[in-house]
Amino acid sequence: MPQPPSEGLVVAYYGDDFTGSTDVMETLEDAGIPTLLFLEPPTREEVASHPEVRAVGVAGVSRTLSPAEMDDELPPVFSALAALGAPLLHYKICSTFDSSPEVGSIGRATELLRRAVPGGEERATALVVGVPQLGRWTAFGTLFATFQGEVYRLDRHPAMSVHPITPMHEADVRIHLSGQTSLPLSLIDVFDLDGPDDEVARRVDESLGSSDGIVVLDVADHETQRRVGSALHRRLEAASTTGGTAVVVGSSGVEYALGAAWGRQGHAAERAVRPAGTTLVVSGSRAPATQRQAEAAVAAGFLRVDLDPGAVTAESATDAEDARAAVAAQVVAALSASDRVLLFTPPPVPGAPAVDGTRLSLALADITRQVLDRVDIPRLVVAGGDTSGYVAKALGIRALRLVRRLAPGSPLCSAVSDDPRVDGMELCLKGGQIGAPDYFVRIADLGTDDVGTENVGAAAAG
């Protein structure tokens, strides 16, 4: 059974949103690869100051960027990550392939990734999306995902087919991706991955070796996942031997596949959790799962503070600032009355003007910063991938360490910051669709003698 290199960095990655980045961190940790997740690209010296670390990530926001914005944002980050010397450089995307030619273009990001390493444009780029552990499968290049216990082709998925920013109208990832890049697209399907290991390895390596474009690899079950992981390991190993860098694009299925190939699961070291105390939940997600979690939290005694999305993102800067300050004051008052408070973004009202998602995330980040300036918050939960990233940056968080696995893709983390009020803060940064209905309640209960984490993530990850 192959094993990761015994010394040095194994993987460097960039996540296209914040919660997806923590998903990769916990998957690597589960495979016994200590990981540090940064909000900005670290220097070699900064990484060297953490000698135990074997993987480094940067939590990004490229899922919300246009191709032109990607051209400005991604090349310096990719170059900085490549300079760290890890043999595998991963551009992490969502397992539901959120993207379009105009927003979050996976095709454009792949082109930029390939340019960041010597020879990257002449070699195949593997694309791995399926993650059975998260209810995501690819078969014959077609992506399937769960929704409330049922499996749907992604273009018929009740949520993704009507996504407000990047609706999925095509489940074949090659066809979907063809609108975002002119790179050649090919497939290694479930039949190619069937048979004796040596024959499968030969077929897969020949397919990857004969392409200079994007090669999609099916992941439909544990066995195809293990064989895809073995193929990625061989590319990682070859790069490690030559001192080069192999690039890969995909969901956390990349790391799950490597862990399966290495036979390394359940290796994450759990760190001590603080005693249960003040917990603030900041909800920027309007996903149904988050709505149910908010209802359960209020029923369990959380004080709820609602904000008006239109007011806190008003065109008038003065009006918006005043609205945010008023909400922050309400949250501070609630925290003086209760150690469990929920700052809640209500679902859209039919007929109401649309609110820009980025501006709303920035408003929530500003409110959270104002609250922290006035109240100590030992445990913070943020719901919403984009909101999580903006809140973390507003708080001056430099990096995150894994404390404990909870729901898939949303572990409990500890903040690394120069600000003593933030350094060591416990954080849960979760995607909107992640977690069981009692997620917020059970996070707040962590640290009491009778509370475990086994059911925190009963719902499928988003």
Automatic annotation (TrEMBL):
Q: Which domain of life is it from?
A: Bacteria
Q: Which Pfam families match?
A: NBD_C, SBD_N
Keyword Kinase listed? The answer is yes
SUPFAM superfamilies registered for this protein in UniProt: YgbK-like
Q: Kindly indicate whether the keyword Protein biosynthesis belongs to this entry.
A: no
Listed A to Z, the keywords are: ATP-binding, Carbohydrate metabolism, Kinase, Nucleotide-binding, Transferase
Q: Which GO terms describe its molecular function?
A: ATP binding; kinase activity
Q: Which Gene3D superfamilies match?
A: Four-carbon acid sugar kinase, nucleotide binding domain (3.40.980.20), Putative sugar-binding, N-terminal domain (3.40.50.10840)
Q: Which residues form a coiled coil?
A: none
Family per similarity comment: Belongs to the four-carbon acid sugar kinase family.
Official protein name in the record: Uncharacterized protein
Species name: Cnuibacter physcomitrellae
